[in-house]
Amino acid sequence: MELEGITSLFGDSNLLTRDNLFLLMVLIGTILAVLSVGMIVLGVNSPLKRKIKSIQGAVDSSSSSERIGGALENMAPIMVPNSKKERESVQAYLIQAGFHDPTALSLFYAIKLITVLVGLFLGAATYLLMQDSGYMPLVIIVIFWIGLFGPNMVLTKLVSNRRDEIRAAVPDALDLLVVCTESGLGFNAALKRVGDELIISHPSLAEELDTVCAKIQAGVEMPVAFKELVERTGVEELIGLVTMLSHASKVGGSIAQTLRDYTEDYRDKRTQAAEEVAAKIPTKMLFPMVLFIWPCFFIVALGPGLITLFDALK
């Protein structure tokens, strides 16, 4: 009886109206904004961090960017998902995009929270300014969708761009590596030299090669270091290089000859990929021609004749 009475009370008083739901959304957005501002203030001027630094005797020399980063980290727990698999997936994407900092995941979710709040406020503004428009619900849905999934789309684009940059730099790196190894340099020294040579033209690959050199010098086996390189970059074309180097290191084969063979094989694969793209062009051109070019052609070719025919029939 009590539940029915509460339901009838809401139904009779018309509390669940469109305006009330909008006001509820504004209230939730305001609460989240106030909490975010409070977390930013606590992150910038955290008394706990100041107390720890004073106990350790450290001088507070942190820059404003570091303080802002700490403030954004405090905002991250609101948006961090409970699924460990999803967190690991986002962390892998951040690494492939070139963000190797341990706090990158927290900063990403903090930025995502900010975009969600901006989307809420823009949705509220759209509701107030476009009440008479029939497109208002669609615009609000698009704003909310961009605010929620926009950071993921940007991250995916950054990953794709970095993969393309590294993929384009691999042939030059392989050619330089073959030249260095055949000139008498050891593999690690040759890898370091290639990284130094590519620092200007291909900085992304040069950074990854320096990381591989550091891992090998630290005692990590060469195949393992290159497998980690594939995981960090997401460039699957390097898997064949990892396999060939692993086999050469196990059987004691010549690394220079292995690199030369892989370079020729990689060059053939690039040629085949270019031929495949060229073969797909006629099929892709068919739809624009049918939709745009052929109607114009028929208008120009048949238009005067049809006009003459209609005049004759009159």
UniProtKB/TrEMBL annotation:
It is a multi-pass membrane protein. The keyword Cell membrane applies. The chain crosses the membrane at residues 20-44, 107-129, 135-155, 290-310. The keyword Nucleotidyltransferase does not apply. Pfam families: T2SSF. GO terms for cellular component: plasma membrane. InterPro entries: T2SS_GspF_dom. It is found in: Cell membrane. Keywords: Cell membrane, Membrane, Transmembrane, Transmembrane helix. Residues 174-302 form the Type II secretion system protein GspF domain. Its main location: membrane. It comes from the Bacteria. This is Pilus assembly protein TadC.
